[in-house]
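Reopening this one. Same input as before:
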Amino acid sequence: MSVQVGPCKDTGAGGVTVVTLDRPERLNAIDLGMVGELQDVWRQLRFDDSVRAVVLTGAGERAFCTGLDRDAVVPQPDSPYMADDPLLRVGPKANDLWKPVIAAVRGAACGGAFYLLGECDFLVADTTATFFDPHTTYGMVSAYEAVLMAQMMPHGEAARTALMGTAERMSARRAHDIGLVTELTEPGEALAAATAAASVIAEYPTEAVQGTVRALWAAKEVSVAQGFAQAPHLVALGNLPGGRQAELFRARRREFRVR
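Same output, byte for byte:
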């Protein structure tokens, strides 16, 4: 199993469950198996009344999530009018879960990780966390990711993150300064801090909490839907052929600036 679900062992917080992306050897990159597991987890949590708040994190110290696994083979229909993006189905909101979900971020969060972060209600991170979007470096349009980032941070910060590619990473401190991250912790303490916040929320009346989550998402879902409607066309027009993307990936620079 590449997704683990269970209570937080450190706190034993009642009503809180922790969902862990568990592929640390692949920096918690999402393969098609993990897509299916995440869908199943979110849908099961809809029916588990004992779970009133959720914490989402990644296993290991190096990464929260690095997006879609580059070795994943995603079959595509032979039609210019249809495209399959499996990451559109990995988030809690996409699976109709309206319980609060808090992200606990340690290490790198990049690219397709924003499909998950963009559907969390708020983020807690430790000082090792970094955020970046590699798409443009490899000749790919950052479309869905950019739409979600634009809901989570000021426009200039979202634009810089999407356009600078692998040359630059946003530090946890900068992310906290701009409001992307709501709480900054010492290394290794983000999960405990996120669980502590979730445990407070889990004590409140369920209907009021879930209604508030739904209201907050309603405030931005029209913008997300409109942006997503444009995304397939922008990707089709702007993405380089797969072979050329692979060449750029192999030739990418290894050094980067953290700001």
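So the earlier flakiness isn't reproducible anymore. For the record, Residues 19 and 235 are 30 Å apart (CA to CA).
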